[in-house]
Each structure stands twice: as C-alpha cells, then as structure tokens.
## 1
Amino acid sequence: GDSVTQMEGPVTLSEEAFLTINCTYTATGYPSLFWYVQYPGEGLQLLLKATKADDKGSNKGFEATYRKETTSFHLEKGSVQVSDSAVYFCALSDQTEKLVFGKGMKLTVNP
Amino acid sequence: SQTIHQWPATLVQPVGSPLSLECTVEGTSNPNLYWYRQAAGRGLQLLFYSVGIGQISSEVPQNLSASRPQDRQFILSSKKLLLSDSGFYLCAWSGDTEAFFGQGTRLTVV
C-alpha cells in the first residue's frame, strides 16, 4: 500500500541554520504530495504542496520539489527561525483520495 | 469558508467505557472525511476514511469503529475502551488537493 517515510527527529538547530527534512514515498500512480506543520498547541495546517512531477511548492521560506525519479519530496529552508519550531509531516494523497502521513519530525530552533 | 468542528477537546474515560467523538464540517458538500490518531513516537496514523455517507474504510483493525450518518458528520466510536486507545485524535476533511484538520481530542483512558 501507499506509504510515506520521513526523517525522524527530534532535531535541534540554531537560528539561521539550513534545514533539510527528507521524505520519500511509495504509491501507485501519481499522488499529490504535501508538507504539513503543527505548531505547539495548534492543529495541523498545510505548509506547501505539489501535485505533479517537478512541481515546486513553497511557502514561508520553505521549499520542496516533487521528484518522481527518486520518489522524494524533501523539505528545505535556507535559514530557520525560532518561530519555525514545530512538528513537520510529509504526506501524500493518492488517486482514491486517501491521505497518508509520515511519522512527523519535531524541530526545535534555538536563538 | 470551510470549517471543521471536533469535540470534545479533552476526555478522560475509564477502561471499558464507551467512546463517541464527533466531527462536523461546514462550508462544503460531499467531503472526504478522515480520523487519525497521533500517538507519541508513532506519528499520524490513519484510522478510518470515508468518501460518502455510509461508506467507511478501515485502515487499522482495532477496538474502534466509525460512522458517517450525514454528509458532513463523522463519528468515531468504541464500545469498550482499552488503555492503548489513549492518544490524540484528529478529524480531517479533504477537498481537491488539500486537507483541513480539526483541533483534535486528547483522550486519556484510565
């Protein structure tokens, strides 16, 4: 079945450090890919998405590119801030519209 | 605009008691609806999803069941709770390419 594997944490970075969170997927067909973020004390919210191969999603300085050849959707940010501290989930939506999430990765950014 | 309501926010229940968590959606019709559980160290686990009234797909066999009596209502139930049912339960609905989540229910089974 469909699955998402993402880098597990927790991860602690200093402010202005470079961030990469790896995400790979297994799916039949051509799923849509997402990154969701859960800030402390809040519900999940969409960070960015890509619906087809080579699409790049971007938001709040974060980027991820849909790589069909490597079945990956790695999340990157050039310079993290304390306010980026959160749990990040990679997810896919397959053709049956079922949403599948990775395990999530907790990021803490220290000043 | 679309909104999703999930309640209660927190719940403490004894082992063996029944459970009913309710989720309703506003501002859309015929949404896909989901119940997830977020357990420490295990991430988000899909429990049930529904593409229409009365249509429920179960992803993980366990002590829980789900029902969709109306288009925008999704209910998570159990007849007898186990200690292992403790966790954070999230309801969600999805449109074409995006999902929206409720604020979650923290369930503690004691």
## 2
Amino acid sequence: NAGVTQTPKFQVLKTGQSMTLQCAQDMNHEYMSWYRQDPGMGLRLIHYSVGAGITDQGEVPNGYNVSRSTTEDFPLRLLSAAPSQTSVYFCASSWDGSYEQYFGPGTRLTVT
Amino acid sequence: GESVGLHLPTLSVQEGDNSIINCAYSNSASDYFIWYKQESGKGPQFIIDIRSNMDKRQGQRVTVLLNKTVKHLSLQIAATQPGDSAVYFCAEGGGSYIPTFGRGTSLIVHP
C-alpha cells in the first residue's frame, strides 16, 4: 500500500492564482482531512470528510474548497491564493471510529 | 474554542534517559487524548491514544498518563533514543474522530 500520497511536494504561487492540492489514499478509509501547519504551531483543521459526498468545515476553512467524489481522493482547492496561505499542508485519513490518522508527506506552499 | 496546549516547547535529554512530555487540556468534554510524533520534514505519526475513562495506557516504550482532575496529559518515553528526536503533539477528540491538535513540543536527544 502507498498509504496517503500528496502532490505536489512543493509549490510557489503568486497572489491571486488558484490551484489544487491533491490527496489520495489506498486504505479504503472513510475519513479524510486537510490540515495546515505554520512554523511553531500545531496542525489546524481546514476541511474534513466522513465519506464520499460528505464534507464539512474545520477551524480555518476560509479561502479553501474541497470535494469528495470518491473514497480515495480528497483534493483541496485554493480559490485565490494569498500570502497568509503560505504554509505546509497535510492530508490525513482514518477509519471511522478511530483517532489513528495516517498522514501524507505534506505539500509546502509559498504564496508571493 | 477551547484549546490543547503544552507546558514546554523544547525538551533536551541524554540518550538512555526517560523523557516526559506534558500537555494541558481545557476541554473537559473530550473523550479521547492522542499523541503524535512528527519527524523533521514528515507528516505526523500516531503513537498512542487513551480514552477519558482510563488514567494510564502503555505501549512499546511509551506510557501515557491522564489526570482528569487537573486536566493534564503526559507521554513518557523509556530509554530515549536518538530516533525519538521529533516534535510531539498531544491532541484531543470529542466524538467526531477528527482530533484537535496542540502546538507541539520538540524533543532533542543527545547521544
């Protein structure tokens, strides 16, 4: 199993550009989440999904959209990038009923 | 919202010593507490969790202690090794199975 994969690993955007961060898992997990991690900070929840077709907002959803059309994929879209969105983004997946999340390797995003 | 935090941002220990990483939480309604380890340049990795109706749980070289009276959680690592150097996060959950993470503490193990 590849586990949780994220692409790209690094990305530089200009203010106002849009892009999609990809996340995929091959463990048939129901739950998937997106977090951002800023220097010296913990992980803050952006959006999450408890199954295909079901998404909900986390702590910091503004400026981001998600969809979950399949169990495997959970892309995160930045609508109009801002410097405040410079961060490392982690995708995670887990079984329903478990707090054991499996994290991807992260995407380091810089917005100039 | 209520937060999960850590007492110490950095902990330095000698190889072979036992390490204790502390965490204070404020949401008394949380029913699970979880520890994650994040090595440099990687995503966090689950270590161990404990349910709120327990006060101690042991894993391989790790023990988590929960004191609900003072809302305190700790992770003890026995015989700390250089490979244990990482940032450790405590997190809490209230039934949604989506944890809320604290800020993290850095553990540095000196050979």
## 3
Amino acid sequence: GQSLEQPSEVTAVEGAIVQINCTYQTSGFYGLSWYQQHDGGAPTFLSYNALDGLEETGRFSSFLSRSDSYGYLLLQELQMKDSASYFCAVRAGGYQKVTFGTGTKLQVIP
Amino acid sequence: GAVVSQHPSWVICKSGTSVKIECRSLDFQATTMFWYRQFPKQSLMLMATSNEGSKATYEQGVEKDKFLINHASLTLSTLTVTSAHPEDSSFYICSASSSGVAYEQYFGPGTRLTVT
C-alpha cells in the first residue's frame, strides 16, 4: 500500500514563506501532486511533479526528490486566503490510483 | 474550464433508505471519474474509480453492493448509497479526469450526507 506523512498543522505570518513537507512510501511511483482545500470546500489542484526538481507556479512551488521519497510545497508571499488544508497525493500502485496524505492545516496570521 | 458539478450538495435521509449522488463534468468529457469520502478533519479516502462504460474498480474495504457506481456517459457518474446507515454520514466528493491520467483531477463541490 501507500502511506504519506505530512505535518498536521503549520502557522505562518502573512507575507512570509512557508514550506509543507511530505514523505511517502509507495510501490510503483508515478508522481506527487498537491491540492488545496478550504473548509467545507472541495480540493483544488495546485501542482504535480513526476521528475526530481522544482516546479514553480506563481506564488506556489513544488519540489520532488524521488530518491528520498520526499517532496514539499512552498508558498511565498503568504496571504490570509492561503489559510486552508494542503494535501500531498501520490500517483502510485496503478496508473490511475491516487492516494492522499493526511493533510496539513495552514493558518496564516496577520 | 474543467468544471465538475455534484448534486445534491447536501442531503439528509432516514436510515435504511437509498441516496443517489450525481457527478457531472460540465465542459469536458471525463473518461475516468473517482469517488472519495472524507470525514471531518481527515483526508480523502478513495472509494472507487470508474471508467465510462465499464464496471467501477472499488478500493479494498469498500462494499460494492452498498456503494453502487454507474458511469453511464462521458459526462455523468452516479454514486448510490444503498440502505444507508448513520455511519455512512460523510462528505462524498467526486473528481474527474479528462485524459484518464489521474495526476490532474478536477473535483466537484462535494455532497454532505447525513443519515438519521
């Protein structure tokens, strides 16, 4: 099976930078995704890494190291609206199968 | 683009009854749809993967006779919770993928089911 670990909560100041880590144990790894979910809402796709390295999309960047089974999501210039839960998800164990991590609740404070 | 709708957004039903939840891709054809359930403050648990015109693939531990999934067209999948019980109360979310590649899934807004 697949297992993913993320910190349960992170607090950061508006305008700062925060990094949310994700470590995983999988078989048949294809890639790592990140999703954002506000309370009561549905997840929205943020990024996907299939290869090692950093992918940048605006204020958000995502990094993957396949050899270390590790990735992170980097949020820059934090805004209050970034307060949400962030899930890493691995595509592994089957081409279409996606397993979500436990989620990290990010609280942005003034 | 890539909008997925779910209906209803919330439903309350009595124990023993069945509830159908619809998931529609509004502006693209979804070759693959996924059904998840999420308990409060927990992660999304994949229940099943459905491909248009074929039987759904259920995850281990998910009762296929209780959670009936139909993917009748490229824009519609339905989840029917049969003989619902209070422990089935949860947030059910569908997602759709246009290419069958699961790394980019577009999620519906979710359906909150409460069984009394």
## 4
Amino acid sequence: EVQLVESGGGLIQPGGSLRLSCAASGFTVNGHYMSWVRQAPGKGLEWVSVIYSGGTTYYADSVKGRLTISRDNSKNTLYLLMNSLRAEDTAVYYCVRDFLQWTEYWGQGTLVTVSS
Amino acid sequence: QSALTQPASVSGSPGQSITISCTGSSSDVGGSNSVSWYQQHPGKAPKVMIYEVNNRPSGVSNRFSGSKSGNRASLTIAGLQAEDEADYYCSSYANNSVFVFGTGTRVSVL
C-alpha cells in the first residue's frame, strides 16, 4: 500500500530554518517524480518544488534560492529544507507523488507556522 | 508563474449541472495535456477528480468530466449533489518544467 507521511512542521521564527520530511512506503521515491505543494491558511494551493527520478529539481519563483528539495534513497524519504523563512511561508506542506499523473498520491500534510 | 484563473464561486441547485473554467496561456493549459482538477473539503487533503484533461481516476463518479479548448480547461459536475460542495482547483504543467495551480473555486449547492 502506498503511503506518504510528512513530518517536521512546527512553529519557527522569521529568518529561521526547518527541514520537512516525507517518508514513503509501498514504492521507491527515486522511481517517481516527487513534489511539494503548500496551502496557506484559508488560501489556495501553490506548487512549490519537484525532483525528478534523475535528480533534476525545479522551484516556484516564490521559493527559489530559499527552499531545497532532496531525497535519500536509502531511507526512501523526500525532504524540503527551508531557509530564511518568512511569514508568507506559513502553510500546510504536502508531498505528492507523480503530480498530475494517474499514479498521483498525496500525503496528509504538515503545518509550518512562521511567527515571532 | 502566474496562477491560472478560475471563478471565485459557482453555485447550483441539486440535480443541476455546473461548469468551472480554468484559464491559462499557451505556456501552460494551452500547451499541455497534463491538466488536473482537484476537490478539497475543509481540513482535508486535495483529491484528484480529473487528470490529463478528461480522465477520471478509479472511484470518481462519472458525474465529473473535464475538457479543454485552447488555453481554457473546464470541469463539469452533472447532477449536483450536496456532497459536491467543496473547493475545486485546476492545475497544469507549464513548458518551463514547473507546475501551476488555479486560483480555486468554491462550489455551493443551494
């Protein structure tokens, strides 16, 4: 059974750093392209980043240079390293397998709150 | 990376059909068949209702259908039911290897 379990969210001060994890089971993360999607409280969905099976990464302009997507194949886990956090990064962060494909699968999300 | 444009809200009576539009450009919706529609109930993760413009995942009611013409994609919900009341988002692949969501539409069942 496919499962994606996000963790690592919490309250962090502006300018701080946080690393989100997405533990996968039922498939291998390096055999699929994996994305992060976020949703600010009361707002719409926003695509954040993708890592393809070959390792190529892409980012939304709003996070480029501050957020870094990566994966650890030995742990079958996807990561999102978040630096220089801003209030506008406050959101629920979802990891998604095969975004926009028929094999797409979403985790349940982890909440990141950036506030002093 | 501009968000795709959706109407803020659409409403209908039970049994009616409604259509939600999703307008982009030739760089995203118009240039890609990777267009999906999501349903989201409050406090829940999004659920894909349509993928690749007009395909339904297993388990999604055939009351939901998708289409595309030029730079505009559409989601039609036939035979509107109370359980269809939710937020709906479109999303598309863009030709610069990124993805973009629509602004979201609140569907109300009167």
